């Protein structure tokens, strides 16, 4: 693999991970985008940011997109250069909208475009593997890459096979033969399914949300989660009327409630009123599998939540020009 051009531009969508019972496995892409361009230079890495994160995100090589690009280029034995990044961000950070996965996928997509786009040996399957390695779980990266709703899982090979695979991944200069360990399928979504994001002002770092999770859960909760995850896939495709029951979660939302009390209060109120609502990713945003009427929009607005109409969209893609 080699660098064939000096400029590339990509768009990456916001995503919701978990989707209720699909903890670390099911995700959905939304019509909210970051637009990122990269130019290889001989100087130092510099980042321009327009929109979300303009006041807070780093402007140098420590920016997540730049770090992903450099790490990936190094793993493929590509020459390291300075990078001029221009980020036009619409995805809010720390809100459970997949901003870190979007940045990781953007970095990988930019390397892919710089090395030939669809002709590059950096395939989408490999990008999902790398994104999961960098992110820690695939439920945001998969819909960000592929679009729509996705279900992802890891191949369960033996320890010896995994050790061999990790050795190969450590030096990916010719990694086209390496079988991916993370797999994804796109889920059918009924045209009747509509989604709305309810986004609060506060943020919740993913690390804090992860720290709230227990090391184990009761067996009955794990069994119930499996049943509802299966029901969710069915409801999403064929029975939207079952989405309220299908979005019941037993593994993460209750444990994280104390870290996002306003969100937890609103989520409880919505579900008492029989709305199919879940925490988006690690929170504190809420994903509602319904269109919000004006009365509900005003009610949640008074509680400080922004209402964003959403829909299923294609995944990350290159932009010409």
Please tag this protein with its features.
globular, single chain, 11 strands, alpha+beta, 321 residues
What do these coordinates show?
With 321 residues, the protein is an alpha+beta fold. 35% of the residues lie in helices and 22% in strands. It has helices at residues 64-75, 99-114, 124-135, 141-146, 159-170, 206-211, 219-237, 243-246, 253-256, 261-272, 294-302, and strands at 7-17, 26-41, 46-51, 82-89, 149-154, 182-187, 195-199, 277-279, 286-288, 306-310, 317-318. The strands form two sheets. Strands 1, 2, 3, 4, 5, 6 and 11 form a seven-stranded mixed β-sheet that branches. The chain has a four-stranded antiparallel β-sheet with strand order 8-9-7-10. Helix 1 (64-75) packs across helix 2 and helix 2 (99-114) runs antiparallel to helix 3. The chain is globular, with a radius of gyration of 20 Å. The model is unreliable at 173-177 (pLDDT under 50).
The total strand number stands at 11
Structural category: alpha+beta
Topology as a string of helices (H) and strands (E):
EEEHEHHHEHEEHHHHHEEHEE
* Range of strand content: 15-25%
Radius of gyration: 20 Å
Q: Major β-sheet, in short?
A: 7 strands, mixed
Low-confidence stretches: 173-177
Instruction: Count every helix, treating DSSP H or I runs of 4 or more residues as helices.
Output: 11
Instruction: Give the end-to-end Cα distance, rounded to a whole number of Å.
Output: 23 Å
Helix content: 25-40%
Q: Tell me, rounded to a whole number, the average pLDDT.
A: 92
Rough shape? globular
């Amino acid at each position: 693999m080699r660098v064939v051009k000096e400029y590339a531009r990509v768009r990456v969508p916001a995503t919701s991970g978990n989707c209720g019972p699909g903890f670390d496995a099911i995700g959905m892409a939304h019509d909210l985008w970051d637009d990122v361009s990269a130019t290889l230079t001989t100087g130092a890495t510099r980042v321009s940011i327009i929109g979300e994160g303009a006041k807070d995100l780093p402007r140098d090589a420590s920016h997540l997109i730049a770090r992903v690009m450099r790490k990936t280029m190094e793993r493929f034995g590509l020459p390291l250069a300075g990078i001029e990044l221009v980020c036009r961000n619409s995805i809010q950070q720390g809100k459970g909208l997949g901003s870190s996965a979007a940045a990781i996928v953007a970095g990988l997509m930019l390397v892919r475009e710089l090395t030939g786009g669809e002709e590059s040996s950096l395939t989408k399957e490999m990008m999902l593997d790398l994104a999961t390695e960098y992110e820690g779980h695939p439920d945001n990266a998969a819909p960000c890459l592929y679009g729509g709703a996705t279900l992802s899982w890891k191949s369960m090979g033996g320890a010896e096979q995994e050790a061999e695979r990790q050795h190969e991944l450590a030096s990916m200069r010719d990694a086209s033969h390496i079988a991916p360990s993370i797999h994804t399928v796109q889920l059918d979504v009924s045209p009747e399914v509509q989604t709305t994001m309810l986004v609060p002002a506060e943020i919740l770092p993913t690390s804090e949300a992860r720290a709230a999770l227990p090391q184990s859960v009761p067996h009955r909760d794990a069994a119930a989660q499996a049943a509802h995850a299966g029901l969710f896939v069915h409801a999403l495709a064929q029975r939207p009327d079952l989405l309220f029951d299908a979005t019941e979660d037993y593994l993460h939302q209750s444990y994280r409630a104390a870290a996002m009390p306003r969100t937890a209060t609103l989520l409880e109120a919505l579900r008492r009123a029989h709305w199919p609502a879940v925490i988006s990713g690690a929170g504190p945003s809420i994903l509602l599998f319904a269109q919000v009427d004006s009365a509900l929009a005003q009610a949640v607005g008074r509680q400080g939540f922004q209402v964003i109409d959403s829909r299923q969209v294609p995944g990350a893609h290159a932009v010409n020009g």
